[in-house]
Amino acid sequence: MIEYIKMIILALVCGVTMPLPASSAAHYSILSYVMNFMSDERELGFYYGVFGITFSVVIFIMLRKIYIKSLKALFIRDKEKLARKKLTPYKPITKNILLSILPMALLFIPTAKDTLLIDYFDKFLTSNSLYLVGVACVINALVLVVAIWYTRQKANELKRVSDTKSTLRMAVYQLVSYVVPGFSHISSGSVNMLISDVNPRVIIREVYLYLAPHMFIISVFKVVRAIVNDVIVDIIPLATGIVVFAAAAFLCVHLVGKFSIRKLFPFFAVYSVILGVLAVCVTFII
Asked: How far apart are the first and last CA of the chain?
């Protein structure tokens, strides 16, 4: 029963925070320290991989029309036909998705024996390095504040969709989020879109659109690697966690999509500072 409760808590926390400009890993680090969650990094990598796949599938389902239209547009070369079928804005999306995946190859660079760059994410989570997580949360908050200030100084015409340069830059920013808990995927992607003059009303959709494919690939790698390393998990608690995570993520993605990212950033900047301070204080209290 205790394992079920732990899995439900982990799935709920990750499902609620993963779609938001707040680090789901930072929340997990604090809960892990308090409630003694799993400490094996391979097992943790497996569960985070499963949740990453689930999150990607939720995004694929919710944005399926855009993905389908972008694939259709990819095979149409005639500009008049593209315009007639109203697919012109979708033409570069598939190309940009493929380009945004390329920087993720850096995560598979070996850094030590049997260790890849991507492994440091799980190592941080299982080492109880709450000081580092707390500092990362505060830096994440400062980045959000700077992004808000920067965009208020600009009067350039806003873009309806992201271009190739901004999606590539977003992918590079998110490399940090894949390595150090405390930096949010949604924050790093949204900040990049803001400074790229993308319309704030579509930023969150753009971030989800480009985040899902490479998160899916990396998450599949984590799951396969854990299985190869003989990580054994209980199927029923895992299935329960997937259902809880999917329901929470679906609801959060739906709700977040109704807000302009500029309205969310001030709140999550303050929240990230509080989370960072809490991460450091927990080590003194417990």
From this structure: 24
Closest CA to 191 of 248, 151, 134: 151
- Token pair listed for 205: 């959709």
Amino acid identity, position 192: N
CA 114 from centroid of its chain's CA atoms:
25
**CA–CA separation, 16 vs 31, rounded Å?**
14
Strands (DSSP E) along 135-275, which ranges? none
Residue-wise pLDDT for 136-155, tens only, equals 888 888 888 887 777 666 65
Cα gap 24→183, rounded to integer Å: 9
Alpha carbon 240 to its chain centroid, in Å, reads 22
What's the sign of the alpha-carbon dihedral 53, 57, 59, 63?
positive
Measured CA to CA, the distance from residue 4 to residue 32 in angstroms comes to 15
Query: What token pair was written down for 93?
Result: 């999306």
| pLDDT tens digits for range 85-137 | 888 888 888 888 888 888 888 888 888 777 888 888 877 777 667 778 888 88
Using CA atoms of 89, 153, 205, 108 in order, give the dihedral in degrees to the nearest 10: 100
What is the Cβ-side half-sphere exposure of residue 149, based on CA atoms within 13 angstroms? 7
What is the per-residue DSSP string for 183-210? S-HHHHHHHHHHHTTB-HHHHHHHHHHH
pTM for the whole structure = 0.88
Identity of the residue numbered 278: L
Which residues pair with residue 217 across a beta bridge? Answer: none
Q: Which token pair is 32?
A: 């892990």
* Encoded tokens for 24: 């789901």
Interior angle at CA 260, CA 258 and CA 263, nearest 5: 115
* DSSP-assigned beta bridge partners for residue 110: 116
Give me the residue label for tokens 């941080």.
124
